[in-house]
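Quarterly update from the structural biology core.
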Amino acid sequence: MNATMTHEALRSSPVRSETGASGAVSGAPLTLLRLEGAAALAGATMAYRALGGGWAVFALLFLLPDLSMLGYLAGRRVGATCYNAAHSYLGPALLAALGATSNAHVLLCVACIWAAHVGFDRLLGYGLKYGTSFGDTHLGRRGRPDPR
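Predicted structure, tokenized:
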């Protein structure tokens, strides 16, 4: 294979950022996504306050979604799936909808705490995980390089 063909092959391959995570966002879109995380954190926290939730409960449950990292004990792909399930806004949105339709105040409060956690993680740059490595996220590479 000559140099031109190699260059063309690289250009046509999937884009990988300097972080090694395929599809990782950078630049102004990354800043906007992190600001969206801050807005979600603030909005969910204000909603929790408006619902009259207790701050001790908020503090106790705030880091609960991080238990999903235990999925990494079963491997990278299982870990990424578990982590993403607990760190997507879909879960808190569904829980809030269930709480609203069933008039369950506690579900609304837990949904706010969960959404606040996801927003906090996004603000810090912790994104949804790829199955390649814990540090490969849609917001870029986090942590030390993977020793693979």
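The first helix runs from residue 3 to 12.
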